[in-house]
Amino acid sequence: MSTSRAIKKSYLAREQSEGAGATVRRSIGVPNMRHLTPFLMLDHFNVSPGAGFPDHPHRGQETITLLLEGAVEHEDFAGNKGRLEAGDLQFMTAGRGIVHAEMPAQNTTRNVGMQLWVDLPQNLKMCEPRYRDLRGSEIPKVTTDDGKVEVKVISGKSQGVDSVKDLAYTPVWLLDITIRPGGKIEQDLPTNWNAFAYVLQGVVDFSNGTKKPETIMPYHNVVFEQAGDSVTMSVEEGADQEARIFLVAGQPLDQPIVQYGPFVTTSREDIIQAMTDFQTSSNGFERAADWQSEIGKTMGRVH
């Protein structure tokens, strides 16, 4: 018998400028939700051609990017290049250091997606960087018996269907859920993991432990209490549109989080070391000295 999780808080992700000309709705990494271990940041981004995220560094975390609309290109100082189309994901482990650029493809008009930053366990902070891509066509899907709910099982498990593989070092579940009017789903979650649900579109009723369900509007993040092992989501029969929810859970890390921009460590001393290493192109950032991405050149080099 599953126990429904209570809602800890729900709040609107407000738009803000980020990168060079991009806008994001940030709902983790903000004053009222600084961190939710192992999660450091969640951005719902909207990038037009001519804007983007030119050359910038990372250390100590992983980024997971899900593209919802358009196409985005990426390039880094190790020679890795690629392109994400709508429905694709990229899992990037920064480890000891990476400098890369993420820019919209120039033949698109609107590029929308989600980017989640996940903390790395302390013993993996200085691992070698890596990329792992997951194409939309590779993601297992499951539909409820009544056909009113579809789940893309990016990572984890839903309705008896497992994801293709674990793509991040830190254990996380990522579920892309679409609920049509009249649809309802009870989703199990790993016990004691932190979990949240971001509503991309539509109006959703979320179970709230033993309390009355809470109705959540688009662009709101719903953070759940750790106690309990399931959440139930539904959309009213008479709703004028289907809902789409990005449901995420992750195994908490028992370690301090010290963050300075794109550097995430467990101590102030390690932050200072990361800044020094980047500025001196050493200890993981050797290739940053004379590197400039091709895709970021039109915007100049940004650090």
UniProtKB/TrEMBL annotation:
InterPro entries in the cross-refs: Pirin, Pirin_C_dom, Pirin_N_dom, RmlC-like_jellyroll, RmlC_Cupin_sf
Single GO MF descriptor: metal ion binding
Domain Pirin N-terminal span(s) in chain numbering: 23-118
A Pfam family of this chain: Pirin_C
Residues in Pirin C-terminal domain copies: 175-283
Cofactor note: Binds 1 Fe cation per subunit.
Keyword line: Iron, Metal-binding
UniProt-annotated binding residues for Fe cation: H56, H58, H100, E102
Cofactor: Fe cation
CDD domains tied to this protein: cupin_pirin_C, cupin_pirin_N
Similarity field: Belongs to the pirin family.
Protein name (record): RNA pol II transcription cofactor
Species this chain originates from: Knufia fluminis
Highest classification ranks of the organism: Eukaryota, Fungi, Dikarya, Ascomycota, Pezizomycotina
